[in-house]
Amino acid sequence: MQRHIEHHLLPDWPGLELVRAHYQGFVFDRHVHLDYHIGLVDQGAQAFMHKGHRHILTPGSLSTFNPDEVHDGEGAENRDYQVRLIRLPLSAMARVSAMMGGRDLRFFKGPVVQDQALYQGLLTLHRQSEQAEPLAAQSLLLFVMEHLLRHHGEPVKPLAGARGLSPFQLKDLRDYLMTSLDAKHSLVALAERYQLNQYQFLRQFRAAMGITPHAYLTALRVERARDGLKAGLRVKDVAANLGFFDQSHLVRAFRRHYNLTPQQYQQQTRR
């Protein structure tokens, strides 16, 4: 298994990360993110599952994931590939939407966008972000996001979830877990929160999200761990603050999620 991963931060855009990663022989488990992800491949091809459908991302196209959308990823036909990714936090999306005159957050129609001009713009953005002068990259970011949202975005609207937990219940659960990531949660307590038995809750959660509640909680903890690592906290303190059993538990979960150790991520993104 081989990989090379680099992170770049864009000045004046807190929380926004530009990532370049080369993977060979690594398979991402099903997971979610707290932020928006915009990806492209410029070498090889990436295969991923999204809402029950398999997609192949090739050079010239983009992948767009909204927060809490379950997906996985691997090299198509088990071959290596290079992906370039923008992690856009909700605050940045709200900022872009406001600059465009909107009041609400936007969602990507995704998960695959065929737009050669947008692909080239994002590829240029990644290359400019590696330069010392941020003005060009900051300007191009706004042009690219405007094009993406106007042509491939839509206002946030309720999600269909007749077979599973409702959108209101999913949002309530997410908010509840995010305020208590350090707590020890039980299936019984989560089920009782929605007046369901354990079997009903587990079944309805999986129907809505496609993963188990524990996998979802772990993904939220790993996502939040990035904030502590970027702020310079010690890995063992981040683990303790977020309910991981110990530092090694966080390291294993982080590596499965990003194919990168917390220490390596911290070195690349330290504020």
UniProtKB/TrEMBL annotation:
Domain of life: Bacteria
Keyword Membrane belongs to the record: no
Every HTH araC/xylS-type domain range: 171-268
Gene3D superfamilies (UniProt xref): Homeodomain-like (1.10.10.60)
UniProt keywords, alphabetically: Activator, DNA-binding, Transcription, Transcription regulation
Annotated InterPro entries: AraC-bd, AraC_XylS_family_regulators, Homeodomain-like_sf, HTH-like, HTH_AraC, HTH_AraC-typ_CS
A single MF term (Gene Ontology): sequence-specific DNA binding
Record bears the keyword Protein transport: no
Name recorded for this polypeptide: AraC family transcriptional regulator
Provenance organism: Gallaecimonas xiamenensis 3-C-1
